[in-house]
């Protein structure tokens, strides 16, 4: 009988040792694994920041002659794990008439090529497929392959004289303006 109890007692002790070892091993494995998963999934966990207004220039730098001028759009970008400050994200044409400022995205709505402004002709021309646009961004002729006018962007002239643009790109080749994500 004593031998039976001693064997049963040691079996119980061995079971508890094994169970405790498994619990400690599980905790030790779960902590670094969960930390690694958090780091790996962090880009998807973060909310995407909406592209707000970006300062492009000052009102004083934009002549009041109605001629469009091309300006780069610099903004902070974040990809999956990297942050970049003041990198080019696109360009806009700004045109000032009086106190009113108009902003047009430089990408042609037909195929996404950058349009050029010709001061001699007073219009925009896409070098890829010869789409032409008036000085205010409308399609210049009916035979143009562009499905819509140049994409206008929201502009704000702030009290300090800064010209801020809500920069956005749109899908090319569509008659309606569909923002790119």
CA distance, first residue to last residue:
77 Å
Number of domain modules: 2
Annotated CATH architecture of the largest domain: 3-layer Sandwich
The CATH superfamily of the largest domain appears as Rieske [2Fe-2S] iron-sulphur domain
Unreliably modeled segments: none
Elements, N to C (H/E): HEEEEEEEEE
DSSP strand count = 9
Radius of gyration, rounded? 31 Å
Report the sheet with the most strands, covering strand number, pairing sense and barrel closure: 6 strands, antiparallel
Output the CATH topology of the largest domain.
Rieske Iron-sulfur Protein
Strand proportion, as a percent range, falls in 25-35%
Proportion of helical residues: 10-25%
Gross morphology: elongated
* CATH class descriptor of the largest domain: Mainly Beta
Quaternary state of the chains: single chain
- The number of helices is 1
Q: Tell me, rounded to a whole number, the average pLDDT.
A: 85
- Based on secondary structure, the structural category is alpha+beta
Sequence of strands across the biggest β-sheet: 1-9-8-4-3-2
């Amino acid at each position: 009988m004593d031998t039976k109890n001693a064997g049963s007692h040691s079996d119980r002790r061995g079971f508890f040792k094994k169970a405790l070892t498994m619990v400690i091993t599980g905790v030790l494995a779960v902590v670094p694994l969960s930390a690694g998963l958090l780091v790996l999934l962090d880009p998807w966990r973060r909310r995407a920041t909406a592209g707000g207004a970006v300062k492009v220039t000052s009102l004083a730098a934009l002549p009041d002659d109605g001629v469009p001028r091309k300006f780069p759009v610099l903004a902070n970008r974040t990809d999956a794990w990297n942050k970049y400050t003041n990198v080019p994200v696109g360009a806009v044409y700004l045109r000032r008439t009086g106190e009113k400022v108009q902003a047009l995205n430089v990408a042609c709505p037909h195929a996404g090529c950058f349009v050029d402004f010709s001061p001699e002709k007073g219009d925009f021309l896409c070098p890829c497929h010869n789409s032409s646009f008036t000085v205010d961004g409308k399609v210049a002729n009916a035979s143009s392959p562009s499905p819509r006018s140049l994409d206008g962007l929201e502009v704000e002239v702030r009290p300090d004289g800064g010209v801020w643009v809500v920069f956005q790109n749109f899908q090319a080749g569509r008659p309606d303006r569909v923002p790119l994500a």
